[in-house]
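This part of the workshop introduces the protein records we will be handling. As an example, a complete record with its sequence and its structure tokens follows.
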Amino acid sequence: MRVLGIDPGSRHTGYGVVENVGDRLVPVLFGSLSLPASMELPTRLGSIFTGIRRIIEQASPTEMAVEAVFVSRNARSALILGHARGAAMAAGIHGGLQVFEYSALEIKQAVVGYGKAEKSQVARMVGLLLGLHDLQDPHAADALAAAVCHIHARSFPTLYSPAQRP
């Protein structure tokens, strides 16, 4: 199984492709699409869609895992984040991928073992799991974590309730 994980954002969208090879998790491709704040939102959304489509063409994932929108106090920020997620998800569907969503809590639980882990703990554990000892991009780390979470959910379905998982 080869999974494209997405950490959506209108300015920085992290991506990470992880392949499950036997009992190992192998990083295939990861990074982030960084877009200038001066770029108009519709143009940024188009860039996210195009960028994710290129990644799908390059890495050939079979499924996509996207971090779900968290509830925000700022409705405008949540709406913009929702647009970025939508652009990424549309790119995945357009690329023929089945798309799955996971909350930040589920991703942290699957990767670190603690749903309220700090971002630095997630990045460190992703680095350990994937043999990436110098993972500097926090957006890529979060995207890789989403991919790892999905692989765990598919590999160990009894650990995830049927209401939440594929």
Remarks:
- The mean pLDDT is 90.
- Residues 2-159 form a domain with the Nucleotidyltransferase; domain 5 fold (CATH 3.30.420.10).
